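Bug #77: duplicate submission created two jobs. Keeping one. Sequence:
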Amino acid sequence: MDEELKREIIIDNYQHPVHKGLVDDEAYIKENTNNESCIDNIDIMVKVENGVIEDIVFDGEACAISTSATSIMIKSLLNKKVEEAKKILLNYENMINEGDYDKKLLGELNVYDTIYKQPNRKMCALLPHNAIKKILEEIEKA
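Kept job's structure:
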């Protein structure tokens, strides 16, 4: 994916994020995630039914990387089985941290494949990952 296309995808998902806005529904599990070194502070809510991610919503104040990563991640995980979602999350984390990962699993999330070159932005890209991973772990324990 060329750099210009990456920029366009990031900007589009920052300016027009999907599923922005929290819901008042006890079927969702909510997690807050923030970056202590900047303004990023996002609440993410996930609804899982019968082992499938039915919905993810978010709200908060965040930079372009955090907001766009949240939007793209939501699109990537919706309607996936929890096990599939966990594979995507693991591969995404590995990509951000320069580990081995399967590009085919990540789709649009590949726009962050060079974020490691800006170490201060890695946490921005990992915010939605961290919250959703924690929620899925909670669901598995229940």
